[in-house]
Amino acid sequence: MELKEIFTFENLYDAYKGCRKSKQHKGEVIRFEANLSSNISNLMNDIISKKYKLGKYKEFLIYEPKERVIEALPFRDRVVIKCFCDVALRDKIDRKLIYDNAACRKEKGTTFAIKRLEKFLRNEYSKERNNKIYFLKCDIRKYFQSIDHEVLLNLLKKINFSSDEMWMIEKLVKEQPNNANIGLPLGNQSSQWFALLYLNVIDRYIKEDLRVKGYIRYMDDMILVHRDKSYLQYSLSKIKEKCEHELKLSLNQKTQIGIVKNGIDFLGYRHILNEDGSITRKLRVSSKQRLKKHLKAIHKLRNKNIVDDEYVYVRKNAFYNHIKNTKESQKLKNDTFPQKLKKNM
Questions:
Q1: Distance of CA 174 to the CA centre of its chain
Q2: β partners of residue 74
Q3: Tell me: the pLDDT tens digits for 79-113?
Q4: Nearest CA to 168 among 153, 180, 151, 182?
Q5: Are 80 and 164 in contact (CB under 8 A)?
């Protein structure tokens, strides 16, 4: 596609509406809306003429689920990136990914990933009717910060992107804070899609060469399920080698081989395969504490009219979906949501 086909006024306007959700109270959004038609037209013209440049990144820290540096662009640039992802980037990358690559994909969020993992556990249990099954959990050391631009662009060039599309892709990859030649900003939507693609070579190696059927990945968290511990040890050595030599990545200290009857930590839960083949899903202690803290914060923000009912509704449903199939679900619903917040629902 050409830039003029991607960045139409209508496409940019749709992207603006998506970016403003739950953020309409923020100053930069209000200022953009003050001259909405003019701002969108100027963006469209700058991009089509290839005069467009990314704004200055703003850094801030988040502390949940762990301390991370988020690098976020101004609102106008987030509109541009969302438009590009929705119209040109998402579908082409999505078609290249394996089925069990989750995160950021339509109908493939945490619920999908958890159900796939538990399906793999049940499948392995049914073979010998026992839970003497092992798992390999691989985690990449500082994944987003370690993505090599040259390697990433070579992977993207193998996809059928037009020259105009590659112009925008190279801008999003190369125009980084401090002009770094490695790493992607966590705050960009495009970074999520690039990160999904970057490990696709590992996904295909595990599925097609190592022939591990029980495999699921959620961003840089990879779980392999197998009855043969020695084969997982072999797989680990090959995955490590391929990460280092082809992608310039290294595995971190969270990488481990364990037995599933002791539980697998994955996406905020501990998944335990019992002797009878049933699966117990427990919230990790850190996840419980984080949820309680988050819900109290929502309560305070709503009372001060900093967030609206739509935001509260979205967060409430995310909370319910996260805990609905755990032992603690009803107790957490009753104990964690403040009474005043419940009344606003």
A1: 21
A2: none
A3: 999 999 999 999 999 999 999 999 989 999 999 99
A4: 153
A5: no
Cβ-in-10-Å burial (0-12, 13-18, 19+) of 76 comes to buried
DSSP states along 179-204: G-SB---TT-HHHHHHHHHHTHHHHH
**What pTM did the predictor assign?**
0.82
CA 184/CA 192 separation, integer angstroms: 9
133: three-class secondary structure by DSSP: coil
**Kind plus residue range of the DSSP H or E element containing 70:** strand 68-72
State pLDDT tens for residues 186-200: 889 999 999 999 999
Q: How far apart are CA 215 and CA 222, in angstroms?
A: 7
Q: Would you state the pLDDT for residue 25?
A: 78
Low-confidence ranges of the chain (pLDDT < 50): 338-345
- Spatial distance between the Cα atoms of 337 and 298, rounded to a whole number of angstroms: 10
